[in-house]
Design goal:
Layout: H1 2-19, E1 29-37, E2 42-53, E3 56-63, E4 69-73, E5 76-83, E6 86-90, E7 100-101, H2 107-112, E8 115-119, E9 130-138, E10 141-149, E11 172-173, E12 181-186
Antiparallel strand pairs: 1-2, 1-12, 2-3, 3-7, 4-5, 5-6, 6-8, 8-9, 9-10, 10-11, 10-12
Length: about 190
């Protein structure tokens, strides 16, 4: 009887081990950034390197400028992605920031990945047409869902440079399919 219980216990433990969820995705090392099109394609646009530093994780963003086209909009050069009649331009966050994240607070990385969009026919930068990719940690990496923002908010430095300026009240939900890039993934 003891042998039978031991076999049952061993079998049960084996089932638990096989049913255990996979290890959570870690904010560590160099990861690739992909923009996903509404047609289901993806464009590799750069990398982000995560370096654990105690309670936080430092990040360094490196966009692959060979994938971008230079646009001179409203007296400033932007690195832009073109497609489907739309242009999405990266807008580097213009003020000093911590450059750190945690698994539950990805706001500074979200601020490093700001974009604006416009049609290819429109002239100048459309700062009120800003895009903010809200990131979520998944088992397969970070998934970014686009939200609408007004980039004019950062035309002057925020009062407190230690707090990311785009909080929940400064962002609006949009239909991801309304933009050429319907999402962003870091894996």
């Amino acid at each position: 009887m003891t042998s039978l219980r031991l076999k049952g216990l061993t079998f049960g433990l084996a089932l638990l081990c096989h049913a255990a969820p996979s290890a959570a995705w870690e904010l560590d090392g160099t990861r690739t950034i992909f923009m996903h099109t509404r047609e289901g394609g993806e464009v590799q646009v750069g990398t982000v390197t995560f370096t654990p530093a105690g309670e936080t994780v430092r990040f360094a963003l490196a966009l692959d400028h060979a994938k971008f086209t230079d646009y001179f909009l409203s007296m400033k050069e932007f690195k832009c992605l073109e497609g489907q009649g739309e242009v999405q331009c990266h807008v580097p966050y213009p003020y000093p920031h911590a450059g750190t994240v945690t698994r539950t607070d990805l706001r500074w990385l979200e601020h490093a990945l700001l974009f604006l969009f416009k049609t290819q026919k429109e002239f100048g930068a459309r700062l009120w047409n800003g895009l903010y990719y809200q990131l979520e940690v998944t088992d397969d990496g970070l998934v970014g869902t686009p939200q609408a923002i007004d980039l004019n908010l950062i035309s002057a430095p925020p009062e407190d440079l230690t707090v990311p300026p785009y909080g929940a009240h400064e962002r609006s939900e949009i239909d991801p399919q309304s933009r050429w890039f319907s999402g962003l993934r870091i894996r």
